[in-house]
Amino acid sequence: MDNKLKLDIYRKMLLSRRLEERIAELIKAGQVGGFMHAGVGQEALQCAAIATMRPDDYLLYAHRGVAYWVARGIPIEKILCDLAGKEGGTNRGKGGVMRVVYPKLGVLGESGTLGGCFPIAAGAGISIKVKGEDKVVLCFFGDGTSNRGTFHEAVNLSAVRKLPVVFICENNGWAVSMPTERSTAVKDISARAAGYNIPGKTVDGNDPEAVYAAVKEAVDRARKGLGPSLVECKTYRLWGHWVGDPENYRSREEVQKHWRRDPLPRFERKLLDEKVLTDESRAEFEAEARATIDKAVEFMRSQPFPKPETALEDVFSESTAG
Amino acid sequence: MDNKLKLDIYRKMLLSRRLEERIAELIKAGQVGGFMHAGVGQEALQCAAIATMRPDDYLLYAHRGVAYWVARGIPIEKILCDLAGKEGGTNRGKGGVMRVVYPKLGVLGESGTLGGCFPIAAGAGISIKVKGEDKVVLCFFGDGTSNRGTFHEAVNLSAVRKLPVVFICENNGWAVSMPTERSTAVKDISARAAGYNIPGKTVDGNDPEAVYAAVKEAVDRARKGLGPSLVECKTYRLWGHWVGDPENYRSREEVQKHWRRDPLPRFERKLLDEKVLTDESRAEFEAEARATIDKAVEFMRSQPFPKPETALEDVFSESTAG
Amino acid sequence: MPTITYAEAIKQALVEEMRRDPSVILYGEDVANFGGIFRITAGLKDMFGDERVFDTPISENALVGGGVGAALTGLRPIVELQFADFLFTAGDEVVLKAGMWRYGHGGAYRIPLVVRCPSGATATGPEHGQCPEAFFMHAPGLKIVSPSNPADAKGLLKSAIRDDNPVLYFEHKLLYATRGEVPEGEDFMVPLGKASIAREGDDLTLVAISAMVPKALKVAERLAGEGHSVEVIDPRSLVPFDRETIIESVKKTGKIVVAEESYKTLGVGAEIGAMLMENALEYLDRPLRRVAIPDVPIPTAAVLEAFVIPNEEKIYQACRELLS
Amino acid sequence: MPTITYAEAIKQALVEEMRRDPSVILYGEDVANFGGIFRITAGLKDMFGDERVFDTPISENALVGGGVGAALTGLRPIVELQFADFLFTAGDEVVLKAGMWRYGHGGAYRIPLVVRCPSGATATGPEHGQCPEAFFMHAPGLKIVSPSNPADAKGLLKSAIRDDNPVLYFEHKLLYATRGEVPEGEDFMVPLGKASIAREGDDLTLVAISAMVPKALKVAERLAGEGHSVEVIDPRSLVPFDRETIIESVKKTGKIVVAEESYKTLGVGAEIGAMLMENALEYLDRPLRRVAIPDVPIPTAAVLEAFVIPNEEKIYQACRELLS
Ligand SMILES: Cc1ncc(C[n+]2csc(CCOP(=O)(O)OP(=O)(O)O)c2C)c(N)n1
Ligand SMILES: Cc1ncc(C[n+]2csc(CCOP(=O)(O)OP(=O)(O)O)c2C)c(N)n1
Ligand SMILES: [Mg+2]
Ligand SMILES: [Mg+2]
Fold first, then answer.
1. Residues 138 to 177 of C: which have CB under 8 A from any B CB?
2. What global pTM score does this model have?
3. What is the predicted pLDDT for the residue at A244?
4. What fold is seen in the domain A3-18+36-298?
């Protein structure tokens, strides 16, 4: 990973973190009504994995966090407008912040039911293969979601048809209040790859370089037509399941322990050590993030709510192939 | 396996084979209207696996063949009445031969949609565990069916809760016209056990002794509260998918090759070699099978069709726990 | 009579029935340690142990299908789905397994299963806010209830748990915090299949379902102020459905409005209209009015959601139209 | 005009549209090598290659959800389910993904997906014989067609394939072998959303769906012999639904019978009744009659199945009742 890429990933991690902190403030202050599953602690893997993508690749992200969108390059004022259910976002108030979409960059959207993304990812893979393209699909999902039947069907279908899909599991130790070891019969979710005869790998999800390397390998493989892979990124959900979660099901000590492994300061330290980052450039990035967010919040505030009657639009497309 | 058990399994294999041959005749002659997926070639594994069961265990069989019922001890005239949609069967004409049911022996029935049995098997396992019983559940399914999402959900649930369920895959090389290697990404379906951290074993499904040993081990494990297992029995579907299948998708040579591995004459030869079976006892078993079937066919013929208006019954139970 | 919330009423029913019958179990995602994402089941694991109350993986097919399997083998499982919308995720298990296993096997088994389905739009979008009762009313073999107040929530849940058939129990999320009097005593039950006349009246029949009932009562009050006597009927149970009570009411009033949070096409109002057209055509002196979601998915933004979800004003307007 | 079967008409539509547009693909269980369990797709793999026509594992969630994904990314997939009943197995993918993905994402994508669903009771029991159209009519975002003859089968399928929205295409298994004239030429299309008046008449409106249409026409013929003039309407497309044609007819006849192979409660007839009660109450001089499955699953034995599935006699009796 070259320095430019390292810095780019770092900047996106930082911007994502600051954006979520701001979103949490806005929600707690009652200034936006949206519903948010924060991804604090998982930005390293999200940003690093997405850094492997070409602009024309497809992305099916999971429900946790803003880093996917930040990493993919969706303007953050749009994310905030979606959160607030305002115009100027990506989905006209229809889907909120859980359905950010961006066709220009292959961001296909989000399934409200967990695991709904797996078959859709396989379907995008079918498209690529039928058209003879060399695009790939990245499909993110949580440890809990790995127990949905759609995982099995879509991974098997992708494997038998050698579809260019990379399945990326974000194993953050929890699914709401359910610890991974009680929901998921296997220690490393990557072990499930054996059931489909595809590569399966577990990496430290808080180490962007390790994630990048593993996902890059899987992406290259897929691009060459060699089929799908499963990459498991071990990480931790540092905040509650949603903003406002009482977290009555896990100990403060456990959470504290994981804060010490927070990927953001860890990567920062590494880049400082490597002299890729300096105290000055770091301060600049912080300032830049804050300025970007301030501006985006302002934009969001200035945007109107959609006209109520637009609720009736977007059910059907009026066009045909005729 | 002692001689008594061997002979018992042999007799049931033989009776099943003869019964299916008779059913095919009845269908081809238009004498019954039922729809039948014949299990010819798979009787060894079905009879041997079911021989491991206690009378109070639960059975969820797959859609292929009569041997499950014969092995479990359901009177064959009832099977024929179900096939013919007559009274005197097990399901009052409601489900035909695809929904043979027998509560007295824990035969829970059949799902019309493939893979519907997996969650039901897990649910029976929950019952056993909640009640603190030491029963087990046997759940049969085909290689094609192993690709349904319900497999994944139910096996994982069974594994995390250590439910006493034995999942038995009948890998017969085909799912209608789809060869296993094109539908299923993995060579040995038992490899999928690794995704749930449970025992997975592949055995020669045409060898009743091997099947018995593997399933017995899994049953014992389950009975002790150690959780589920996956046993894959490699076998072959010697007849078409259904009685009347044009079989335009596979070669005569392939089928011929597998007839040479037909488990019935193979087991017969073995028992003759071992002197467990003699030419005389063999002839007796044949005669007994024919007599039993003749009598059952006669009974079936004598039975009336259900009264049309009984179609309105059996939707809801009128009872309550009141 | 004590006044408790709808959420507390549900919990009371669960506790009483689990105390009464050891074959009643309860499971779902986050129900045990967390106490349910709507906090209905908090404390139950401690009361009944972790075999009878347990958390499961995110596997809705296995949850509902597992409930069928457990019911076939002698338990009375209660499965909590986190959102009623997830019934579709378990479509086969709900419609074909729970609904048809008994019939397909000639009545050999009973299926005393309850699936608890939190319903209703709360600005969480198309897949977390539906009231999908009408889909499942079309499916033979399923009973369906939708209580609108704490007493019915408790009484119907107790009946559902004791019923030997699969029951989809829809609990509206916006009703959880509403309060009402609930009779004391473990014997208090509300039978499935009996509508309640929430308010008597002579000029117009207003059938309202679930969270529409409190709204309908306010509309009736308002119309009373304008000199109109509105009868509010709460079917409570959608399968079995108490057609008689509605028919009798319409024979008296000649006018019918149905308010529901379903999609309009083939919502509950469609069946009510059709069965009135079959049974009471000569009594109907004004057209049917259905107040429902105008056949669009439920949008997330509050301002859009408010446009599609029936509210008091829309119900009032529909009634006014018929009364003028 | 050439006379071909309904099955051939479906195949013609598939071949023509796949020739016309390379983005049309077709997949499902046993469709390629075997040619489909109802033999509709025999030969297509050889014509279009094994990327555009392929066999899949038994994975209905992945098939339908995959269709959504392929449609989002520029293809026009046609997914064959072996039986319409398996729509429930893919409940989430059908209702929440195909039906709502576009809306939930603010119209950012189009979903030109066709799901082919062989429907109808053929003595194969509760899970292989349903006509489940009505379930999905309640779901916003899905178009639904149910052709009753070869010409419509072809023309509607071509329209469905070219439509930029998800369409559930119900092909009735008992119609496959029926013959009819089908206009030649690749331009022959039947628009979605336009009912057909299969026979004109003045005394009674008989709406019939799918395999009920030929039966309804025979009933109309028989009643003509008895001096009654029956108008038979075939909606063909259930979403969008041509209400106007039915309303106009009822304004003329004042009587309505609906014949369908759905379950009665909240079957298509419920919506027709309700919308007439909204729009044409003053013209209705007799009660609604719905000829449908009496809210039980479909039994397997032929003698039982015949008792619950609507037939000519039942349709005739319903009409007679209104005409007397
Ligand atoms: C089919 C389905 N079941 C349940 C839910 C509710 N739900 C939303 S997030 C969540 C936990 C997901 O856990 P995991 O996959 O590990 O992701 P994480 O939240 O840890 O990022 C649950 C149960 C849902 N949205 N869809
Ligand atoms: C959900 C579902 N999909 C498809 C079918 C139709 N179908 C019945 S049997 C069968 C093949 C099953 O293959 P396999 O599981 O290998 O069992 P086998 O027939 O080889 O014994 C298919 C596709 C079905 N009944 N249910
Ligand atoms: Mg997680
Ligand atoms: Mg097979």
1. 140-141, 143, 159, 161-165
2. 0.98
3. 84
4. Rossmann fold (3.40.50)
